[in-house]
Task: inverse folding
């Protein structure tokens, strides 16, 4: 086991032992912009994941984020959605030093390079299953990530007018929608696969009630960043075919603009090719806004 420089796991692992028993293997999981994610194995217990909200600005909001994830996972345990099960919660970080959530480790691995039609259809079907959940607990209303403070044409943009048109659109009222249960960060890096089957959906800290198309949009933007807007559209088409829900391109625009950094912060997208594909995605969805 190797700790990250500046991050002491010892208190968190001691806390996890109170639920799991004697902990053997501990390894760092890849990914996790918001958190340090540890796979923890204890004798005689199923493997677990320990989320430590170590990264700002999410650490500051770690109590509501980890609490929400725990509550949502407990609710989803009675549904067909393959989510982890919450095992223990230290939302304030009193015991772990950081807001912490202990949950089961699901089988499978992320497969962000999958872009064949069958995989896109399975992604769309899983998202439709999430949207069909009828919450049995109070779930917050969604929040836009396209804050007005982000309405600044990025310096790398090749078409400033495109971004200005997007900002003008978003200053208006969003279209009417039928509220439903949404994951809010549904995208390939939060979906686990084993062969051709989806075995899990993770990262439930942003779960909300909101427009179904915002989930479709977020997954589409992520697919566009990696594979281009054609693949993103094929996923969106698969969702429409599965559900019959209408497209709402306003939320596609909202999602693309949400990827811009707020003033004074660096973008987490640094690959010039991905930035180009983000602008291409914006151009594609703006043409559908009428």
Result:
């Amino acid at each position: 086991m190797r700790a990250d420089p500046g991050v002491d796991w010892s208190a968190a692992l001691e806390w996890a032992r109170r639920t799991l028993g004697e902990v053997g293997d501990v390894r760092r999981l890849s990914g996790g912009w918001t958190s340090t994610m540890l796979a923890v194995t204890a004798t005689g217990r199923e493997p677990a994941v320990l989320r430590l909200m170590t990264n700002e600005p999410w650490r500051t909001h770690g109590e509501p984020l980890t609490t929400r994830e725990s509550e949502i996972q407990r609710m989803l345990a009675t549904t067909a959605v393959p989510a982890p099960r919450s095992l223990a919660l230290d939302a304030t970080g009193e015991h772990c030093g950081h807001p912490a959530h202990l949950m089961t480790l699901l089988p499978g691995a992320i497969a962000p390079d999958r872009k064949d039609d069958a995989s896109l259809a399975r992604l769309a079907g899983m998202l439709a299953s999430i949207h069909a959940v009828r919450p049995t607990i109070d779930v917050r209303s969604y929040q836009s990530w396209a804050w007005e403070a982000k309405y600044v044409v990025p310096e790398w943009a090749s078409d400033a007018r495109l971004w200005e048109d997007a900002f003008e659109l978003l200053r208006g009222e969003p279209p009417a929608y039928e509220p439903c249960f949404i994951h809010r960060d549904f995208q390939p890096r939060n979906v686990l696969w084993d062969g051709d089957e989806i075995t899990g959906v993770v990262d439930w800290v942003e779960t909300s009630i909101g427009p179904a198309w915002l989930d479709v949009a977020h997954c589409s933007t992520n697919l566009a960043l990696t594979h281009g807007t054609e693949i993103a559209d094929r996923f969106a088409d698969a969702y429409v075919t599965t559900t019959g829900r209408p497209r709402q391109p306003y939320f596609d625009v909202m999602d693309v603009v949400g990827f811009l950094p707020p003033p004074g912060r660096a973008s987490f997208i640094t690959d010039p090719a991905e930035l180009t594909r983000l602008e291409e995605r914006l151009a594609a969805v703006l043409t559908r806004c009428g």
About this structure: Residues 10-105 form a domain with the Phosphorylase Kinase; domain 1 fold (CATH 3.30.200.20). The mean pLDDT is 94.
